[in-house]
């Protein structure tokens, strides 16, 4: 397959990315960039015939998950960060890699705790969440169902 190695393509007469890997600096401005690139990616899937349009609700959830995961990476790892977005059947996978080796754990819900709710939020809205150690750093993958809930 030719072209950008960070992209896989749909099969058919029109092709576009169903996967995109984005290198982020790790500074605070990369959170807004990650949210924007997520919206562009999801909108591009629909216009390229890789599925129907993504609802505003699902788009918002995907951007929320990206914000929380990238914010955690910016806060705890010394950059850079890799954000990988991938269409996987009727879901989108949001994968964030950072160089910090510590595996995050969602805390129990506590309405009196200020902060540290990011992973708890991601677990609540994602269909699946996995965290795995890498040779360098860790990889957090959240799977968001693209189908509207009943």
Automatic annotation (TrEMBL):
Assigned keywords, A-Z: Kinase, Serine/threonine-protein kinase, Transferase
InterPro entries reported for this sequence: Anti-sigma-factor_SerPK (IPR050267), HATPase_C_sf (IPR036890), HATPase_dom (IPR003594)
Pfam families per record: HATPase_c (PF02518)
Source species, domain of life: Bacteria
Transmembrane segments: none
Residue ranges annotated for the Histidine kinase/HSP90-like ATPase domain, each copy included: 63-147
Descriptive protein name: Histidine kinase-, DNA gyrase B-, and HSP90-like ATPase
Organism: Streptomyces cyanogenus
Classification lineage: Bacteria, Bacillati, Actinomycetota, Actinomycetes, Kitasatosporales
């Amino acid at each position: 397959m030719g072209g950008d190695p960070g992209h896989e393509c749909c099969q058919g007469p029109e092709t576009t990315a169903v996967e995109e890997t984005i290198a982020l600096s790790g500074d605070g401005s990369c959170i807004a960039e990650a949210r924007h690139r997520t919206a562009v990616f999801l909108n591009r899937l629909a216009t390229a015939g890789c599925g129907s349009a993504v609802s505003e609700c699902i788009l918002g959830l995907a951007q929320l998950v990206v914000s929380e995961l990238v914010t955690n990476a910016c806060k705890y790892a010394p950059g850079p960060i890799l954000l990988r977005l991938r269409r996987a059947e009727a879901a989108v996978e949001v994968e964030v890699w950072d160089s910090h080796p510590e595996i995050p754990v969602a805390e129990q819900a506590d309405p009196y705790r200020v902060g540290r709710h990011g992973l708890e939020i991601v677990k609540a809205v994602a269909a699946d969440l996995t965290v795995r150690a890498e040779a360098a750093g860790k990889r957090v993958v959240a799977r968001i169902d693209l189908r509207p809930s009943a």
